[in-house]
Amino acid sequence: MSVDTDAANKVLAGLRPFPVAVTTVDGGFGNGLMSLSAGSASIIPEAPRATISLTKFNKTHDMVSNSGIFVMHMLSAEDDQLAKSLEILMTLGGSSGRDGDKLSKLRTKTGVTGAPILLDAHSYVEARIAGTLDVQESSIFVGDVVAAEILNPGQRLKINEAWGKLPEEWIAQYDANHEPQLANARVRRFGQKV
Q1: In sequence order, what are the residues at sequence separation of 6 or more whose Cβ sits closer than 8 angstroms to the Cβ of residue 26?
Q2: For 122-136, how does the pLDDT look when each residue is reduced to its tens digit (9 = 90+)?
Q3: How confident is the model at residue 152 (pLDDT cuts 50, 70, 90)?
């Protein structure tokens, strides 16, 4: 049976409208990245959970796995906050933590778990990992929310809005940086270079 991957990707892309900034700390070093694979993981209002999916290629994946904590941030779409949201997206999504300290370029405070909170984000939930699912190229982390805050009320930024406002040269660099991650994911999933 053959899968219409174009149709599948269109359906699945519609489930990931919001880019989220994920931060963590491990061994005193803070790091973060951007993800489109995050969400709510509990139906119990008095016991919220968050879920993130991180590819194993990323340094942040290993740091979340080691530390057992993460912070999931939403970005603001409000006019007075949009420049800061795009700065967060480009800073965390534009390079690897292996290349240096990305978080020093952003305004942060320390959360209850010790993980960095991005002060220019729309909002955040801070979580301790309750369970992890290994799915070859990625890990899905589910965390019990231990802190949450709305920092900058208003509308949350959607990925299609953000992508339309990013500089073309940044998008080209992002695409180039994304290729090794895709290659690594394919090897992990299929066991060979594709």
Answers
A1: 62, 63, 64, 66, 67
A2: 999 999 999 999 999
A3: very high
CA dihedral 70, 76, 82, 87 (to 10 degrees): 0
Task: Scan for tokens 């992002």, then name that residue.
Answer: 174
Which residue segments constitute the domains of the chain, with CATH numbers given? 14-190 (2.30.110.10)
C-alpha–C-alpha distance, residues 51 and 133, integer Å: 11
Residue 40 near residue 51 (C-beta atoms within 8 A): yes
What single DSSP character describes residue 187? Answer: H
Rounded to an integer, what is the distance from CA 49 to the centroid of its chain?
16
- Reported as a single tens digit per residue, the pLDDT across 28-83 is 999 999 999 999 999 999 999 999 999 999 999 999 999 999 999 999 999 999 99
**Sheet of strand 49-55, all strands in order from the earlier edge strand to the far edge:** 29-35, 20-26, 69-74, 123-135, 138-150, 49-55, 38-40
SS3 131: strand
Say how far apart CA 19 and CA 22 lie, in whole Å: 10
Give me the residues paired with residue 34 across strands. Answer: 21
